[in-house]
Amino acid sequence: MGAMQAQDYHGVLWGIGLRTEDCTVKDIEQAILDRKIVRTWPMRGTLHFVAAEDIRWMLKLLTPRMIKAAAGRRRNLEIEDAELEKARKVLSSALSGSDEYLSRQALLEILNKNGIRTTGQRGYHILAHWSQQSLLCFGPHIGKQASFTLLERWVPKAKELSREESLAELTRRYFTSHGPATIKDYVWWSNLTSADAKLGLELAKDRLTQETVEDKVYYLTPSSMEASKPSAYLLPAFDEYMLGYTDRSAVLHVDHAQKVVPGGNGVFLNTLVLDGQIVGLWKKQPKAKSINLQLLPFTNLSVSDKKRIEIAAKRYEHFIDTPVVTIDKVQ
Q1: Cβ contact 170:190 at 8 Å
Q2: pTM of the full predicted structure?
Q3: Is there a contact between 284 and 293 (Cβ–Cβ < 8 Å)?
Q4: Same domain, yes or no: 183 and 266
Q5: How many CB atoms lie within 10 A of CB 143?
Q6: Which of 6, 87, 216, 329 could form a disulfide bond with 12, CB atoms 3.0-4.6 angstroms apart?
Q7: pLDDT tier at 331, thresholds 50, 70, 90
Q8: What is the DSSP annotation of 247-291?
C-alpha cells in the first residue's frame, strides 16, 4: 500500500485488517507496539500508517513540500522559527528519558510549562512539524490517547533510499495497490509535483503496464488485471478505496457522492461495497456487550446481497472480538 490514511485511528486499524488474512484489532495494535507499522504525517499534511522500515525515506521524499506549504499557517498561529527550535529541544529532552513515549496531552503540558503555548491548534502544528522533520512519530495508544516518541529511538533501523530509488519505490507501491489509476490520481495521493510523478513512472516502468480507456491512460501491475470474485466489504471511513483517487466515479455513482461525503466537508463515512461498487453506508451503535451495525444501503438489497453482507459483518465481528448484530435501513 505504501501508506494508508489514518486520521481515524480505529477506522484505519480495520482498513489494515481487511487487507490481511486473519488479523484482529489486537494483532494490529501489537504490530504498532512491535514497531512494524508507524503512524505519522508523510504526505498531504494528513496522518497515515506506513511500514516502519519505510518511514525515513518516505518522510525525506514527501515532507519538504508540506513543511514549506504550512509556513503561512504557522505564521498565522504566531509560531516563530525560534519557538519551533525551542520546542524541538523541549520535546527531545522529554522523550529521551525513561519514558520512551508520552501521551499527546502530557507533551502539550510540557510545552506549556516551558513557555510554548499550545492553544488554538498551535500544539497540533508544532507536533506535526517535528514529525514531518523526522524528529517525532506516534507511539502506541495509552488508553484512548495517542502518544508520541522520538523516531530515531522508536525505529532506529529504518532504511534510507536515494531520491530516485524513493520515487521508483513509491510509484511502484501506489500503482500496485491502487491500479488501475492515472498519473493525476498519483499526484493527488502522493502530493508529488507532476514532474516527480512522471519521473517515478519512468523509473518504475519495467514493473508497470498501462491501458487507455476513453482517452485516459491508466497504470497498473499485471496482478491488477486478475479477475476478482463477487465480494462484499464494510469499508471504514477515509479508506484508500475512496481516498486514493481524484476521480471516484468508477466505484461511486455521482448521485450518491454527497451521501458519502455529506456537505462536501472532507469527512468521509463508512461505506458498504458490493462487487466493487459503493452501494451504501454503515454505522456502529455500541451496546453494553455488543455492537449494532446499521446498514444504510442506497437501494433495497437482495436476499443474496444481505447474506454476503452478513459474512462481511462476521469478519468485522471477529476483528473486534465483539458480537455484531446487523440492521438494514434504506436511505
Answers
A1: yes
A2: 0.92
A3: yes
A4: no
A5: 6
A6: 6
A7: very low
A8: --TTTS-GGGHHHHSGGGSS-PPPEEEETTEEEEEEEEEE-SSSE
